[in-house]
Specification:
Largest sheet: 9 strands, mixed
Radius of gyration: 23 Å
CATH architecture of the largest domain: Alpha-Beta Barrel
Distance between the termini: 57 Å
Number of strands: 21
CATH superfamily of the largest domain: Alanine racemase
Structural class: alpha/beta
Bound molecules: ligand LLP
Number of helices: 12
CATH class of the largest domain: Alpha Beta
Shape: globular
Length: about 425
């Protein structure tokens, strides 16, 4: 459920017409609905209200400071995967005691930064990383709280690029190696082993793979207990999918029910790292039609946003709904919706049936709140677009559009070229 609805055939975000914002900030731009984010966060969080738990919003889905602040205010923590995300989470006011640090390749510098800030837990992905964290903690005279990310070898049945819990994936510690890794962790003097973690993939539209992974983790928790290792936190990662087109992912309450059924006999606090399910359908990318071109083969709707602004369709073959900002009757065409970038992979939709738009019309590329702006780039020297947040009638620019000067900021001309 989201707050992007038509009123009098004009698309609105909450109480503001999308067209009015476009006149104000120009196109393209990302537009987020505060109410949608708040609702998604609350629905997810309250689904687990009967047990001790922490929702660590996964910054990688959308790390704009204003958005992270929203989830912090609602009581959320943060899942970070880099020093940069840790910096953002702290700046947005997330308490370190609610931050978990995941990722296969944490650098020495990132480990030190997180230790300095005394975050809740590192989700560790290899034995070498255990030693690296232990060494750094010893040098700093502190103890590091850690959990081990286990690769449960469960097929999440999602796109191969976003599967992470199969044995062939680079993520986590192989299930068969888990016990020895936990024992190694226990033997390292500057580590406190407090957690177990898994994340099997993203955009999951069935509950079974989650339950399957959880069952495997549960087994391990029992064995660990026998070995004298008490697990206090079970981090089940993120991954709950959303509807882009016809998918029918489990509702968060359904997902919670399935999980709670499996964990009621465990004495652990649960951690979740949702990203997409919170912000995915809370954001759209608004773009303007520049030209309509008709070749002998098909129609091309050429818009002013490009794959540098939203790369999901070419990268994952993902479907993004595209809606007219002003809905009207007209001829139906089958068109490719493409951007201005010099690559054939610069498209938002292929062979899409739509009412023929006119040049200067606005289009809304839906479900773009997660993995949209954060994956954008300056390819073709295109300034990154601005981001706007709507709350009721209030419109706030939460990131300015980049300028041409921003494009060359930090570049230097060597002496011999001056
Ligand atoms: N935790 C970990 C350890 C993760 O690797 C991820 C996502 C999440 C949490 C959040 O997952 P979510 O709830 O958003 O599914 N760029 C791709 C998605 C990559 C996801 C990477 N990891 C896309 O646009 O579909």
């Amino acid at each position: 459920m989201h707050f992007f609805q038509y009123r009098d055939n004009t698309l609105h975000s909450e109480d503001v017409s999308v067209g009015a914002i476009a006149r104000e900030v120009e196109t393209p731009f990302y537009l987020y609905s505060y109410g949608t984010m708040e609702r998604h966060y609350r629905v997810f969080d309250s689904a687990f209200q009967s047990v001790p738990h922490l929702v660590c919003y996964s910054l990688k889905a959308n790390s704009n400071s204003a958005l992270v602040r929203i989830f912090g205010r609602l009581g959320g923590g943060a899942d970070v995967v880099s020093g940069g995300e840790l910096f953002r989470a702290l700046k947005a006011g997330i308490p370190p005691s609610k931050i978990v640090f995941s990722g296969v390749g944490k650098s020495a510098q990132e480990i030190e930064y997180a230790l300095e800030k005394n975050i809740l837990m590192f989700n560790v992905e290899s034995s070498q990383e255990l030693s690296a964290i232990n060494d750094r903690a010893r040098q700093m005279g502190v103890r590091a709280r850690i959990g081990l990310r286990i690769n449960p070898d469960v097929d999440p049945k999602t796109h191969p690029h976003i599967s992470t819990g199969l044995r062939e994936n680079k993520f986590g510690i192989e299930f068969g190696e888990a016990l020895s890794a936990f024992n190694l962790a226990k033997s390292l003097k500057n580590l406190d082993v407090i957690g177990i973690d898994c994340h099997i993939g993203s955009q999951l539209i069935e509950v079974e793979p989650f339950v399957e992974a959880l069952k495997r983790l549960k087994k391990l928790v029992r064995t660990l207990k026998q070995e004298g290792i008490e697990i206090r936190y079970m981090d089940l990662g993120g991954g709950l999918g959303i509807t882009y087109q016809h998918e029918a992912p489990p509702h968060p309450t359904e997902y919670a029910q399935a999980i709670l059924q499996e964990t009621n006999d465990l004495d652990v606090a649960l951690i979740f790292e949702p990203g997409r399910v919170i912000v995915g359908n809370a954001g759209i990318l608004v773009t303007r039609v520049l030209y309509i071109k008709r070749s002998s083969q098909k129609f091309f709707v050429i818009v002013d946003a490009g794959m540098n602004d939203l790369i999901r369709p070419p990268l994952y073959g993902s479907f993004q709904a595209i809606l007219p900002v002003v809905r009207r009757k007209g001829k139906e065409i089958v068109a490719d919706v493409v951007g201005p970038i010099c690559e054939s992979s610069d498209f938002f939709a292929k062979s899409r049936t739509m009412i023929e738009p006119k040049a200067q019309d606005l289009l809304a590329i839906m479900s773009a709140g997660a993995y949209g702006f954060v994956m954008s780039s300056n390819y073709n020297s295109r300034p990154r677009v601005c981001e706007v947040l709507v709350k009721g009638k209030t419109v706030s620019v939460i990131r300015e559009r980049e300028t041409y000067d921003d494009l060359i900021r930090g570049e230097k001309i060597p002496e011999f070229l001056k």
